[in-house]
Fold:
Amino acid sequence: MGLFGRSARADEEETFVQKPHEDIPDLSEPPKSTRIAAGATVSGTLRGEGVIEVEGTVEGEIELKGAVMVAPTGLVKGPVTADVIHIAGCIEGVVCAREHLLLQKTGSLEGDMTTPSLVVEDGGRLNGRSTMPPHPQQPGTSWPAAEPQTEE
Structure:
């Protein structure tokens, strides 16, 4: 019998019952980052908040409050809208970066882009029209997507 009339076995059982609950992760917060692995293909629309890292292929629209990072192995076929966009791979579609767009030396953008801040590293390829509004967009406002130019 343990101290104060409680058996030692009861203390062990109480500890055992509580232990599994300590190992369960808290899932109340959404993930901060999503990675599309090399070799994987995702089709459809991706919307949300956080960071998306594309190492594989995305066929469809990406609309994000946060950042889109396209790795050298990454390919996006479709429009991309995000606060920050870094391209080291390839995007084929209209791009709208609300704050900043970085086209790295291994990156390629085949389509029109809109951003208030653009950096193109030596070797980066931009094939399309660029539109640079005078100021970064205020939160809660949206830009119209860049329209492909039609020849008459």
